[in-house]
Write a structure and sequence with these properties.
The protein starts with a helix and ends in a 14-residue tail after the last strand. The model has no long low-confidence stretch (mean pLDDT 94). A hairpin with a 2-residue loop joins strand 20 and strand 21. The strands form four sheets. An eight-stranded mixed β-sheet has the order 2-5-8-11-16-18-20-21. By secondary structure, it is mainly beta.
Amino acid sequence: MHGPRLASWLRKRWVLARHPHATIRFGRGVYLGPGFSLSVPHEGSFLVGDHVEFRRDFRAELDGRARVTIGAGTVFTYSVLIQCSTTIDIGERCQFGQSTILLDGQHRFRDLTRPMLEQGYDWHPLRISDDAVVTTKCTIMSDIGTRAFVGANSVVTRPVAAYTVAVGAPARAIDYFGPPGQEPSEIVAP
């Protein structure tokens, strides 16, 4: 077990050395797996709480003064990607499945006189609350509430309420398992 921990420590040193202009903090017991990659070409911030686990091939790309915060005990499995130009705040004890992407902006495309890549982006901060679970191959573009569960292959384009199961593309609420009386309106029986 000493080999992986030593390799993680070396990866942290490498990330910090490559980004002297950025604010990067790793809490106690953070594990950086093989293929961990962080791109912060400007003065962004990447702030990680205690005992966060980044398994294989995690990548985060921060533009400008972007800020990503990750709460204690959160786990990223394989090939998770974060792209941030504003803020992405992830709570404590969250879980992210393989090949999931989190982003705080979308391409503009509706101007028929210009190609999509010339139209810019629409930005909005993203918040993932404590204990949220996002399973495999999801795209997250909107907030997720406390203990919400997002099913595999879902595309979250609207906020997911706390204690709600959401699935599909676009994701929609299909079940609620939280305190009575807090059910989201879209799944309350008429």
